[in-house]
Each structure stands twice: as structure tokens, then as C-alpha cells.
Amino acid sequence: MVTTDGFTRLAQPLQRALWERGWTGLRDSQVVALPLILDTHDDVVISAATAAGKTEAAFLPLLTRLWQDKEPSSGLVLYVAPVKALINDQVERLQLFCERMDIPVYPWHGDVGQSSRKRFFADPRGVVMITPESLESLLFRRGADLRHIFAKLQAVVVDELHAFIGNVRGRQLQSLLHRLEAQLGQRVQRIGLSATLGDMGMAAEFLRPGHGGEIHIIATPGEKRNIQLAVKAILQPNTATQTSQDAHWTIADELFERLRGANYLVFPAGVGLVEFYADALRKRCERAGLPVTYFPHHGRLAKSEREETEAELKRGSLPVSAICTTTLEMGIDIGAIKGVVQIGAPQTVASLCQRIGRAGRREGDVAVLWQYCIADTLSPGADCVDSLYANLVQAVAVIQLFLAKWYEPPLAGALHYSTLIQQVLSLVGERHGTTAAQAYQMLCQTGPFKGISEANFIALLRAMAAKDLVMQDANKVLLHGTRGEKMVNHYTFYAAFPDSQEYRLRHGGKELGTLPLHGTCAPGDVITFAGRRWRIEAINHEKRLVELAASSMGKLPRTFGGGSLVHRRVREEMRAVLAGNDIPVWLDAMAQSLLGDAQRQYKALRLENTRFVVEGHTVYLFLWEGDQVQEALEVLLKSYGLDAKNIGICIEISHTTRELVERRLSEISAQPCPAADAIIQRRDVRDSEKWDWVLPDNLFLASYASRALALETAHSLCQSLSCR
Questions:
Q1: Which of 32, 400, 629, 654 lies 20 to 30 Å (CA to CA) from residue 617?
Q2: Are 640 and 624 within 8 A, CB to CB?
Q3: Quick one: fold of 226-403?
Q4: Beta-carbon neighbour count of residue 359 at 10 Å?
């Protein structure tokens, strides 16, 4: 909804700029945000649908405040975004307003040259648009000058707030904002922007830890949009009995025919499948004598390759589709997108919402979602889990929750020891030395690492000292050790996520991106990358540099990274889908048939009345819980000698009997809930964060469990299961 309320309160240059761009008034979120931001210095969270004007809701009053403060404006606003591309996009949007108001705008990330930063340091005012990593660098390198640099700081805007909550970059950002305010000796207004937030209270608490209840929350549903929805099931042939082509080739054939009339975003599961579809669709274009209109976009591609895809989408001369990962979930400007193709079940409702939000954004447009699910052709010996078609059922459940406007709440409770190590090293650099007591007070007692005890903090410092990251001088002041000094002065230090130990791929002097490769790779090997096929011409393992030449063959890259944890509400919805008889009209004939089969199988297995299904020497335990609980129960069962595995829809326990499983569940429930280090060994944990190598086993395992395992909940569940 658009209204003229508050429009006249904006700075006159802003009013003129908006009228010239065709604005007739302000949207709902902008009207509500205007007095809160313009007249107060209170914290605000603005949550609204994609393309609902959240950025303007924050910046129209902030720029008005800067303009009213003094001419030329002497105030400063800090804007933090998770990706460089979003900053580049927002710089262009803000400059349309700011250039009329003598308010400079400074993009600030690794791709921006030093001349822009020198201009800012000479006259620190305006709008600085920065990534957490560059803000970390600024605090670390300019610690002594922070009070001067940020003396006129009026507000911090955090965009795509949901992208930070519950992860290492989010905890890093919380720490950076806390350290910045400590240096300034004052509280600075914080404004969070996000399109998808499942728990507004948790979002507010993330923005200002310990004071979430004091934050103003603006949540507007946005304008209703029409969605064209279709779910299609593709059978994967049984290679032992059928000669049909692979399901992914079938999907590629369909995409080639269906996507050539408009711009689409295609989201397969992982970089390997992105490269498969980009290559397969390119080959189909070449065979048909048509221009190539399918381009890859993922985080391992070089900046120039990603920008080429973004430019093709915006150019509009030909319908173009991007085959992408989460890199295009963010709200960067990529022109008019007609629809989204999802290949494989979405892991989270929030992610699906972000993706659909990229399409049909022009007034009157219909947003298109085509969901493909691959289902195995059942052989005579298929187990009961295969016949429930979990991938299809999960896709239906996630879509139904999306239509019901439910989204996952952010993950909370992680200890983030790895990020704490980085922050200790950074704080030592910022202050040119600090005491252990001062560091604990800044980072844990008053900072975002409140869940960490003084004893464990001391243990962490001792571990850091043992690795030569820190040392104490005669006055008990913490300083960088020899190894620590070397590491903090490397450009990779500022990122809280792991360093990229990968090979650079180059063709004809042009950087294509990076990939993890085995040390056994040699000239003559083939790979598929950037949507094309290559042969390795030369490889330097010491410099991790690969020279490529075009090839007629290519091998898909194997990249590793954990998927998102599935929430309990999604699994509950899956159970509801299976327990019912409804078949959504937006499923194609094959998907309808398979879902009907799955519903009949659910009833045949009597899963409405039991958690246990036994087939031969395998017990299937159906909990309908989220991954944190199911992963924790897997660990508990393994600690009692059972061969358990969380396979999503249930826990599979091999080489056992129901009686033995129930006995073990009873034994687990009879004992107190164990600590993580009592039932997990470090070598069994694949999920590792950047600085985990520093931690002693007990802290490493406690940190892992805090983000991946709900041990207390799983332990309580054992008691209820053993009483059945």
C-alpha cells in the first residue's frame, strides 16, 4: 500500500528525487519507520516482503536526518551487508539520492581501491557501505583512530539480517558492533532489514543482545502476489533393469525447452549440479545453433564470471537463465526475473521464500515456481523408506509452509568458540595489547559470547598460547605470539569462515575461480567449471595454480559443504502430508501418483501409531523431529553400540532388533544426559570451523554440539520412547 503520510517530512532534495522517479507516496513499512528513525535514536527491525522498500524505509529518514543536521552534512551512517554484490547494487541506488544532498557514499570491501578510503579518512562523513570482514579490518588496523573516524556515527544499518543470525559471521558482526560502541563510549542506533524472519523477537535480540525487548519491530506483509506453482516428479531409472536416461538429463531437456522465453533462476543442490546444468544447457544451445543463454553463478566463480552472468540477466536483449546457488538469493538487482526453478527439495522455508521473492517483482507479474523432485524407481527389494518418497514429501511440506507464511526461527545457543579466538586476536591488535580480564569483560561479560564461562575462557587462552597465537608480557598483557603475528597480518584473518585452501583456475590469463583439487591432479585431467569443459594444461601444486584449455570432455567438480538443518516444523508437516489424503492440485500426474503411493505406505506401516518399523535386521525410528534432535539421538545410540544413522525422514539402525533398540533407549534415559565429549570423538566430527584446530577436545566438542546437536531434547525423547 502507498500513502502520502510522512512524505513532506523528508528532506526536500529527497522529495524531488522521489517525484522524478515516479513515487506518489510511501509504502507501509516506510511510513511506520519514518518517525521512529527520524525522531528517535531507538533500535528498529524492519521485516517486509522482497522488493517492499526496506532499504528506503531505513535510508529516507536517515538521509533526511543527515541533511537536516548541517549543510553540508557532517554525520555518518554505517551500512553492513553480507555480500559485496549487494553493496555494489545499493551504492548505485543511494547515490541517486545522496548526490543531490552532498552526502558522499563509500563502498568498502576487498574489490574497492585505496583512493576511496583515503577520501573518507580525510573527511569521515556520509554513508559507508561495508562487509563484516572489511569492518573487522578497519577496527584491527585503525583501532587507535576509531574515535576520530566514527565520531559522527549516527546509525548502523544491517541488511539481510537473516543471513547473519545463528552463524559465525553473525557472531563476528555482533562482536564488532559491540567493540565499536565500546571505543566510542556511546550507544549507536541499530536498524536491521530482512525479508524473512521466523521469530521477530529473536531477530531483535540478535540485533541488540540483551535488549531485544526494547527494539521497535516493523513487520508488514507487503502486497499480495500471484504465484504460478508446479511440482514435477522425475523418476530416476533403475540402472539394473531400465535403459532410460538419468533424471538430471531429463530435467535439462525440459529446462532447455521451457526457459527460453524469459529470465529464470535455477537452483540445483550444490556447485557440482550447478556446473552440470550450466554445461548441459550450453551444449544444447550449441547443438541447436542458438545463442548461449544459460550461465552459472556460484561463490567459487571469479568475480568477473559472476558479474558477467548478472549483466546478462539485466541486459534484457535475450531471455537469460542463471544456474545458481544461494549467491543469487540476496536482493541484488538482476533485472526482471519471471520465475524460479528448484531442483531437489528445499531444506528451509526461509530459503524458498527468498528465492521466490526474486521473481515476478514488477506490478501485475506472476511469480513462477517450478519444483523438480527426483524419485527412485522402486525395485522389488526396496525398503520402506524409499517407498515414502521423502524428497517429494519434503518439497510439498516446505511449499505448504511457505504458502502458510511460516518461516524457520533463527538458530540460537551456539557457543562460537572459533569466532571467539578470532575476536581475541583482533581485540589484541585493535588495542595493541589487552589483559585477559579486559578481554573477557569486553567479549563475554558485556559482549555477545555470554554463554562462555570464565574458566573456559582461560582454557581457550591457554590453548591459544600453546599454539603460539598469544603470549603474556611481564605485566600480564596479552600480545600476539610469533605465529599469531604472522596470521593476523594475512588478508584471510578478517573472515570468520574457513580460509579457501583451493586451486586458482585460469584460462588465457583470465581468472575463472577456485576449486578444491586433489594433489594427484595432473595435466590431461578434465573438469567442468564456469559452465564449460576444460583440460588441465599445467598445474603448480605449490602455488595452487591451474592453467586450463578448452576440452570436449569434463568431470563435474566435487565440493563439500553441509546443507541447512531441517527444522522440526518441516518434519511435522511432512508427517501431516503423509497422514492425510489430500493431493495438491499443483503436483503433476507423476507427483500425484507417487504422493498417493507414499500416503498409502504410511498407513500400511501404521506410522500414525508407532515410531518403529522393522524390516529384517534393520529398525527404522520415525521421530518427525528436526535434524539437531535426530543427529543427537544418532550419537546417543552409537555411544551404546548401535549402528544408527540419521537419514532425514527417520533414523536407520542396522544389524539390530527392536527389542535391543528399546533396551538401549531405556538405558540412555536412565542415566544423566552426557556431555558431548563423553560420547563423541573429535575424529568423528566433519563439521569444522576456521579456528577449531586451536581448541582442546572438550571445548571443540562442546562448540560443535551447541550448533549441531540438541542433546538434552534427544535425551528426554529417549525416556518417552522407552516407555511406549
A1: 629
A2: no
A3: Rossmann fold (3.40.50)
A4: 24
- Residue 161 grid cell: 539480517
The residues, any chain, with a CB within 8 Å of residue 419's CB and separated by 6 or more, are 168, 171, 172, 175, 496, 689, 690, 691
* Mean pLDDT taken over the chain: 90
> In this structure, what C-alpha cell is assigned to residue 289?
545453433
Per-residue burial over 3-19, b = 16 or more CB atoms within 10 Å of its CB, e = otherwise: eeebbebbbebbbebbe
What pLDDT, in 10s, does the model give residues 708-719? 999 999 999 998
Q: Which of 53-57, 68-72, 185-189, 358-362 has the lowest mean pLDDT?
A: 68-72
Integer Cα distance of 322 and 571 in angstroms? 30
Residue 159, Ramachandran bin (φ over 0: left; ψ between -120 and 50: alpha; else beta) = beta
Q: Which residues of 290-309 are buried (b: 16+ CB within 10 A; e: fewer)?
A: eebbbbbbbbbbbeebbeeb
The CATH architecture to which 2-220 belongs is 3-Layer(aba) Sandwich (3.40)
Distance (Å, whole) CA 302 – CA 552 = 22
417-489: in CATH 1.10.10.10: yes
Phi/psi of residue 599, nearest 5 degrees? -65, -40
Evaluate if residue 262 carries a pLDDT over 70. yes
CA distance 249 to 281: 10
2-220 and 226-403: same fold? yes
C-alpha cell at 706: 551447541
Query: What would you measure as the largest C-alpha separation in the chain, in angstroms?
Result: 80
Percentage helix, strand, coil for the chain under 3-state DSSP, each rounded to 5? 45, 20, 35
* Angle between helical axes of 417-431 and 697-708 (0-180°, round to 10): 110
